């Protein structure tokens, strides 16, 4: 049963009573909201026990302390006396996600709307004045939840870890990598970046618990504060048009446009978030059915890698993108050709590789058409092999210790 107990900020804790009751998720693992491609990489890296602790300590001794001192000196730290609403949102978000510690929240002067989670050993959150002025309280709550998601997942730690491991493996291999090989590594790292942002959009939804608000916040980040001039339905229609736009030339241009980005485009984020909010996983979490943090050491790298591959395959299947449609057709055609070639050699449709003799066909009644029962097998074969595969394996992200919104 979900926990709906009193949240920080309620009467008796020195704060304001929240405008609405939200569900709390005791012991929730970040695996509950992570995109499969993000989760697969993180589970594998978490198996390297000890490396993350050393990385946190080394980074915390100098670099992280320096950055925190800079924000302490040049920004405003939220408290009961400064930006109290933001301060309460931070405590509430940490409470809902059952964070091990409540990160500090800073407001920094910058007209560009942005937010970031910084640090490994003692992470903190920074939001810009541009974002504070752009979003209302409910929308800001989802952004704070997004950044809490980065912290709970340990994105800054594991992104840095994987980058170090990648550089180390390149150095030790003794094999000079060409430009294309290096670009492939960078592309994989950025792909993880983008998938981790989708993960944390989900974390923001778990904190705000209102899909319309989460989508509205992303729409305002894309189009500004004139909400009365915008429509969520129309923005989702934009997302569908972007997915299906034009021909293969547009598909190639979309790949080129996204290559250097650490974040997915806003329309993609809105469409992905709505798909997750409408699916069974979100409702299961709200009902209290989610993976727990104490189960993380038992997570299977193989299972998560399979889930990641399945997610890419499903995204290809659902996409209306012309290039992905062509890939589906090519893969499906190759599978059909392979099936016909197999039938030619085995002498039977749908035959396996074993030596068991196929059972005789059923007797047909008067008026039946002999062989018609084979159409079911043929349809099943086509259905199973007609799906294409997605992009390559997920990578990681940026070496910087921060994760932006």
Relevant terms:
405 residues; 5-stranded mixed β-sheet
Distance between the termini: 31 Å
| Uncertain residue ranges | 10-18, 330-335, 350-401
Quickly count the helices.
Answer: 16
The helix fraction, in percent, is 55-70%
Rg for CA atoms: 25 Å
Helices and strands in order:
Layout: H1 36-46, H2 51-61, H3 63-74, E1 76-77, H4 84-96, E2 105-108, E3 115-118, E4 124-128, H5 129-134, H6 137-153, H7 155-173, H8 179-208, H9 211-223, H10 232-244, H11 248-259, H12 266-277, H13 280-286, H14 301-318, H15 322-346, H16 374-385, E5 402-404
Parallel strand pairs: 2-4
Antiparallel strand pairs: 1-2, 3-4, 3-5
Helix pairs in contact: 1-8, 1-14, 4-6, 6-8, 6-9, 7-8, 8-12, 9-12, 10-12
State the gist of this model.
With 405 residues, this protein is mainly alpha-helical. The protein has helices at 36-46, 51-61, 63-74, 84-96, 129-134, 137-153, 155-173, 179-208, 211-223, 232-244, 248-259, 266-277, 280-286, 301-318, 322-346, 374-385, and strands spanning 76-77, 105-108, 115-118, 124-128, 402-404.
Write up what this structure looks like.
- The chain is mainly α and 405 residues long.
- It has one domain.
- Helix content is 57%, strand content 4%.
- The chain is built from 16 helices and five strands.
- It has helices at 36-46, 51-61, 63-74, 84-96, 129-134, 137-153, 155-173, 179-208, 211-223, 232-244, 248-259, 266-277, 280-286, 301-318, 322-346, 374-385, and strands at 76-77, 105-108, 115-118, 124-128, 402-404.
- It has a five-stranded mixed β-sheet with strand order 1-2-4-3-5, sandwiched between helices.
- A hairpin with a 5-residue loop joins strand 3 (115-118) and strand 4 (124-128).
- The protein starts with 35 loop residues before the first helix and ends with a strand.
- Residues 10-18, 330-335 and 350-401 have low confidence and may be disordered.
